Amino acid sequence: MSLLITDLDNTLWDWFHMWHTSFSAMLNRLSELSGVPQNQLEAEIREVHQARATTEYSLLLDELPSLQERSPKSSPMQTYDEALHALNSARKNTISLYPGVKKTLREIKSRGVPVIAYTESISFWSEWRMRNTGLDGLIDTMYSSPDHDFPHGKTPESIRMYPSSDYGLKKTEHRHVRQGLLKPNKEVLRWILEDFSVDRRSTVYIGDSLMKDVAMAQEFGVHDVHAAYGVSHDREGYELLRRVSHWTEEDIRREKILAERPDIAPTRTAHKGFSELLDMFDFQGA
Ligand SMILES: [Mg+2]
């Protein structure tokens, strides 16, 4: 095999655990501080997430009507800064790679095989997670969605708290896919294989979602591996995500059906961890 393409969230790190821990910490604090019931906040949050097409929207608090009402003199993000603090510190404390990921990536790279990441998550948070897990440089190129839109008059730079050298990636090259282009659309895989001039049969793709990752890899004809070790069984977290996410009812319905009766059978399954890739394939640079 001469190319590895990997999903990021719940394939290299436990995004779901990080999201649930940090988001619920923020939500609890926000409800305590503002007196707005949690279910009302959740409903308002869902509307903003749907409008912004992401569950990781940086200016979320400023756009929640019940917080705007209770914060007439300053922006909700300033008034409820403590809740953002809870979010940020939980996020930092809970992002970590699955065991064996770094070692496996190093081994594959040492054999001259490029490692490519393909994530649907937005640019800013994908880079944040790459930096905070020490993967900058261990992945050759990352393909991600672009950032969400910003309200009129605001730019990513205008809301940054640290110098711009603290952002971005130093070694991994970052390419953006077209906004709204989502898995299991095969277009990005086609693009990656063209970029690296590699044949489908020499390419391995690994990801935790049967519906998105495995289905896409199979349809395109690269070797598919299901990262079953990354599938979360946190029901409570899943319910919260469902209540506040940008997903449409149709997305949720499809996920539910698939979870109950998976009709996509992966060719290979990694049950224990990412390092199983080394037992499954002979990675050798072209
Ligand atoms: Mg994933």
From TrEMBL:
Enzyme class, first EC level, given as a word: hydrolase
Top-level lineage group: Bacteria
SUPFAM superfamilies: HAD-like
Pfam families: Hydrolase, Hydrolase_like
Listed EC numbers: 3.1.3.-
Entry GO MF terms: hydrolase activity
Keywords from the UniProt entry: Hydrolase
The protein's name in its UniProt record: HAD family hydrolase
